[in-house]
């Protein structure tokens, strides 16, 4: 192991030692009401990301997942990153971002190409070429392709090939799933990040990011849907046989429940939000009772029956729209692993019981996995998308092998330097 004499070595040499072999992955969930950021250090030996920084701040300037004022999300991204930077000791200059909104479309595509002589081996160039052929003319000019998910390939008549790389054949066909979004909306999210001095490594749909953090291989294989209940949108991603089968976004979310409570109970939105988080229930209670809370020095009293009636009406609208999305995917009532709920709305009491009864499927709250480290609130379903984005960023680094060049790794901040030096002194003293 390389050792330094800290009494004689200058700070730049110490920092160089600290950064040797370090790689960082960052996920930024740009939600309508909140921006959440997760920074993780990637272990060089195991490749497992360890969360070292977390930030979450209120957002403005967005409606139903779409940017309507660049200044709001740009400032929120900057503030959320600032909190994560202070915790981790590192500055962030690149990340994987989320995108949301009803403009996200899920479509089917297929195509065929001749790849060469009978002894030709399928290469990555062949796979890229057939994806281009499959999507040509399938996506309008004002839309940008976010991802192409191959469901199966056919090579010279042989069906259901998952990965033809290295196989021999002359005619290659593909059956794929294409996710796209409106180009101006995607560009605005990227511009908001760039205004905050953050380069977007890639952009991922929120529900797909959440699914990356909370789903296991068996669930993906059996058939499962992730329902990400955000502030102003509810996103769905359906998986089966290990692949994404469908994704959709509903422009209704937790804010609608808050607003309904504010109107129905004739109170301020701040009080309504507190009632929703602390006293609301997704399942109607049998016994009516009174609840009290303090606001601006005044004690306010409400009936649980009134709260339940308001919440139930809005949940019925949301889950009817979710059921319609599952029908569109051809999976209504047909998912062996049921649904997994993520997002801030998943924190509503008894929400899994409501989802189970309404959708006729098993339901549970999604708990993010696949990382090390512990931080406040990180295990909540509201952080699932941000953690999933960080995991996608870590995978991108592993595939590209260019973590040091293109990740968020930069010189530590002044405060981070002192914190890290303290750790190093302890380590070398030991």
Task: Give a structural overview.
- The chain is an alpha+beta fold.
- Among the domains are: 11-102 and 370-375 and 383-429, 2-Layer Sandwich (Nucleotidyltransferase, domain 5); 105-184, 2-Layer Sandwich (Dna Ligase, domain 1), CATH 3.30.1490.110; 254-312, Nucleotidyltransferase, domain 5 (2-Layer Sandwich), CATH 3.30.420.
- 37% of the residues lie in helices and 29% in strands.
- It has helices at residues 11-19, 71-88, 124-135, 183-195, 206-214, 217-222, 254-264, 269-278, 304-328, 351-359, 384-400, 403-406, 414-429, and strands at 23-30, 34-42, 49-58, 62-63, 66-67, 94-99, 105-114, 143-155, 158-161, 171-182, 199-205, 224-229, 234-240, 243-250, 290-295, 298-303, 339-342, 363-365.
- The chain has a five-stranded mixed sheet. Strands 14-13-12-17-18 form a five-stranded mixed sheet, sandwiched between helices. Strands 7-10-8-9 form a four-stranded antiparallel sheet.
- Helix 5 (206-214) packs across helix 11 (384-400).
- It is globular, with a radius of gyration of 24 Å.
- It starts with 10 loop residues before the first helix and ends with a helix.
Structure characteristics:
Nucleotidyltransferase, domain 5; five-stranded mixed sheet; globular; 13 helices; Dna Ligase, domain 1
CATH architecture call of the domain at 11-102 and 370-375 and 383-429 = 2-Layer Sandwich
Profile the largest sheet. Answer: 5 strands, mixed
Strands ordered across the widest β-sheet:
3-2-1-6-11
The portion of residues forming beta strands comes to 25-35%
Number of strands: 18
Low-confidence stretches at least 5 residues in length (pLDDT < 50)? 1-21, 402-430
Oligomer: single chain
Mean pLDDT: 87
CATH fold-level label of the domain at 11-102 and 370-375 and 383-429: Nucleotidyltransferase, domain 5
């Amino acid at each position: 192991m390389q050792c330094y004499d800290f009494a004689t070595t200058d700070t730049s040499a110490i920092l160089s030692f600290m950064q040797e072999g370090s790689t960082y992955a960052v996920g930024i969930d740009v939600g309508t009401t909140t921006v959440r950021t997760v920074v993780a250090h990637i272990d060089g030996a195991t490749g497992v990301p360890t969360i070292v920084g977390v930030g979450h701040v209120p957002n403005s300037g967005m409606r139903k997942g779409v940017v309507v004022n660049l200044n709001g999300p740009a400032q929120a991204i900057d503030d959320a990153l600032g909190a994560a930077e202070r915790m981790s000791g590192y500055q962030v200059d690149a990340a994987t971002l989320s995108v949301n909104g009803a403009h996200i479309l899920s479509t089917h595509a297929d195509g065929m190409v001749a790849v060469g002589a009978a002894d030709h081996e399928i290469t990555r160039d062949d796979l890229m070429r057939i994806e281009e052929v499959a999507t040509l003319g399938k996506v309008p000019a004002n839309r940008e392709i976010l991802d192409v998910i191959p469901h199966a390939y056919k090579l010279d008549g042989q069906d259901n090939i998952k990965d033809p790389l290295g196989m021999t054949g002359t005619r290659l066909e593909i059956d794929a799933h294409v996710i796209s979004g409106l180009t101006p909306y995607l560009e605005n999210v990227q511009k908001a990040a760039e205004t905050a001095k953050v380069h977007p490594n890639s952009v991922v749909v929120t529900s797909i990011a959440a699914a990356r953090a909370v789903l296991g291989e068996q669930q993906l294989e059996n058939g499962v849907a992730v329902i990400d209940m955000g502030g102003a949108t509810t996103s769905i991603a359906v998986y089966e046989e290990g692949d994404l089968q469908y994704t959709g976004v509903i422009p209704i979310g937790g804010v609608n429940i808050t607003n309904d409570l504010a109107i129905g109970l004739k109170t301020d939105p701040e009080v309504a939000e507190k009632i929703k988080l602390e006293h609301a229930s997704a399942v109607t209670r049998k016994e009516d009772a009174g609840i009290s809370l303090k606001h601006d020095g005044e004690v306010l009293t409400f009936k649980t029956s009134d709260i339940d009636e308001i919440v139930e009406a809005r949940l019925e609208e949301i889950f009817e729209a979710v059921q319609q999305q599952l029908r569109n995917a051809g999976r209504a009532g047909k998912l062996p692993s049921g649904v997994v709920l993520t997002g801030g709305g998943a924190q509503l009491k008894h929400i899994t019981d409501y989802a189970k009864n309404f959708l006729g499927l098993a339901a549970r709250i999604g708990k993010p996995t696949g990382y090390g480290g512990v931080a406040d609130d990180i295990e909540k379903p509201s952080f699932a998308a941000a953690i999933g984005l960080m995991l996608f960023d870590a995978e991108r680094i592993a595939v590209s092998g260019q973590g040091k060049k293109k990740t968020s790794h930069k010189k530590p901040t002044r405060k981070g330097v002192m914190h890290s030096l303290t750790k190093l002194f302890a380590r070398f003293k030991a």
